[in-house]
Amino acid sequence: MSTVESVRWSADGGAVDIIDQRLLPGTLLRRELRSADDVCEAILTLAVRGAPAIGVAGAMGLVVALAPHAEEDRERFLACAEELGERIARVRPTAVNLSWAIGRLRRVARETEGNARAVLGAMRREATRILDEDREMCRRIGEHGVGLLSDGARVLTHCNAGALATAGIGTALAPVYVAAERGRRVAVFADETRPLMQGSRLTAWELAQAGIDVTVLADSMAASLMREGKVDLVMVGADRIAANGDVANKIGTYPLALAAHHHGVPFYVAAPWSTFDPATATGHQIVIEHRAADELARGFASPVSPRDVAVYNPAFDVTPAALVTAFVTDRGVLRPPYRFDEAGHAGESAG
């Protein structure tokens, strides 16, 4: 079994090398990001997407963007690092991993002694650590979560929280990959995930590449599938988790959690510790990004709604903590009561 590598340094080290996810599943194309404009455009247009992958790409992209300024005096370089870091961090406000990763690099820049080149070198090493940590984090999530998947498990997932959304084997799909490695039979139902079809275009593609049984269904079919008793558990990712356990994830996650709760199906959220945001008390305080109307009104082909009608197109919704059976994290499986704070306390660890 092999998984894709969504983000990495380019061969010459001067660019961020990504898979352009806008072209999948029809075309597999790697693309190099060599400027702040490239990085921001790729994140904004979802060429690179998924909270962990966005954080990794943003951190590496800041290093790439600062390379032309390496010969400037230290203070000017630091000012540029702050400016470009802020610009990249605000491209996708809902995904906390992006601001978290950029914050790490800005802190390293401020704390590193020496000239601009020395600071840039320290920032590159920190960005590489973030990349490596993400890969290790995915593996730990898989190891902690694999116990939730028995042989023959039928897993329903939403959007894409696999290898394409991270630098490793994913978050929500990590337990699936680990289970497959251990010889367990696992079948995945992938919501198509309207309006950008990350489930049918990305999740189904990467699982098929890895030889894992996957079936695509329309988002509106998930509840019926549960009613028929064909789903053993739901496993989704997250873009931000508030201090009380409320979860912001791809739009459509909240109704999926409601359906799971009604049908007695366990609803798990898999996410790295960097996705937990103790500074945000509840989901009501999470800023929800709204995307361009054409993503819904035009889609990938001919218009599917009249040109002159209004469009409501939030990229995410918030699932209350009460609907989450447990969080699968790189620190273990966390069960209620949830309370995530700066000290790292987070309910009961069960793994």
Which short descriptors sum up this protein?
Four Helix Bundle (Hemerythrin (Met), subunit A), 351 residues, globular, alpha/beta, disordered C terminus
What can you see in these coordinates?
The structure is a single chain. It contains ten helices and 15 strands. It has 351 residues and is an alpha/beta fold. It has two domains: 7-139, Four Helix Bundle (Hemerythrin (Met), subunit A) (Up-down Bundle); 146-349, Translation initiation factor eif-2b, domain 2 (Rossmann fold, 3-Layer(aba) Sandwich), CATH 3.40.50. The strands form three sheets. The chain has an eight-stranded mixed β-sheet. A hairpin with a 6-residue loop joins β1 and β2 (16-19). The longest helix is centred in the middle third of the chain and has 30 residues, at 116-145. The chain is globular and about 65 Å long.
| Backbone shape | globular
Q: Give the tally of structural domains.
A: 2
Count of helices?
10
Structural class: alpha/beta
User: Sheet with the most strands?
Assistant: 8 strands, mixed
Report how far the terminal alpha carbons are from each other: 25 Å
Oligomer: single chain
Total number of beta strands: 15
Protein topology:
Layout: E1 7-9, E2 16-19, E3 30-33, H1 36-44, H2 51-66, H3 74-89, H4 96-111, H5 116-145, E4 153-157, H6 174-181, E5 186-191, H7 198-209, E6 213-217, H8 222-227, E7 233-236, E8 240-242, E9 247-250, H9 253-263, E10 267-270, E11 276-277, H10 294-297, E12 316-319, E13 326-329, E14 332-335, E15 348-349
Helix pairs in contact: 1-2, 2-3, 2-4, 2-5, 3-4, 4-5, 5-6
